[in-house]
Amino acid sequence: MEIRTFYRKLREIEATLPDEVILVSKETPEGGRAGRFTEAPRSVAARMIVEGVAEQASDADAESYREQVRANQVEEKRRRAAASIQVSVITEEQARALSAKPAASARGKNETKS
C-alpha cells in the first residue's frame, strides 16, 4: 500500500471512531489470534484497523466485553479484600478479659441510674 493511501485511510478511520474503541483481533501470519477483545485509544485502533490486524467490535460484543471487564474488576476487589483480612490469635485469658470488660461497664451504668 502506498504511504499516502495508508495515512489517508488512517485519518478517515480515526475521524469516525470514538475516543475509546473495543477491537476484535484477526488471525495474522505473525501468529496473531483471532477473536481476542481489547480496548484501545482512537489512534491505536485506527492503525490496527488499517493494518488489518483488528476490526471494531459490534455494539453487542463491546457491551459484553465491558460487562466482563466490570465483573473481573469486582471479583479482583473482592479477592484483594479477602486477602487483606487480618487474624489475631489470643489466649483464652485474653478472650475472657475482653468479654468481661463490656459486662462490667454495663453494670456500672445500670448502678448509677438506680
Structural features, described:
8% of the residues are buried. The protein has one domain. By secondary structure, the chain is α+β, with helices and mostly antiparallel strands. The protein has four helices and three strands. The chain starts with a helix and ends with a helix. The protein is rod-shaped, with a radius of gyration of 30 Å. Strands 2-1-3 form a three-stranded antiparallel beta sheet, covered by helices on one side.
Strand content: 5-15%
Mean pLDDT: 87
Strand order of the largest sheet: 2-1-3
Number of helices: 4
Strand tally is 3
Largest sheet: 3 strands, antiparallel
Q: Could you tell me how far the N terminus lies from the C terminus, measured between alpha carbons in angstroms? A: 95 Å
Tell me, briefly, the overall form.
Answer: rod-shaped
Count of the separate structural domains: 1
Question: Stretches where pLDDT falls below 50 for ≥5 residues?
Answer: none
What is the SS-derived class? alpha+beta
Strand/helix succession:
HEEHEHH
Radius of gyration: 30 Å
Proportion of residues in helical segments:
55-70%
Concise synopsis of the structure shown:
The protein is of the alpha+beta class and 114 residues long. Helices cover 62% and strands 12% of the residues. It is rod-shaped, with a radius of gyration of 30 Å.
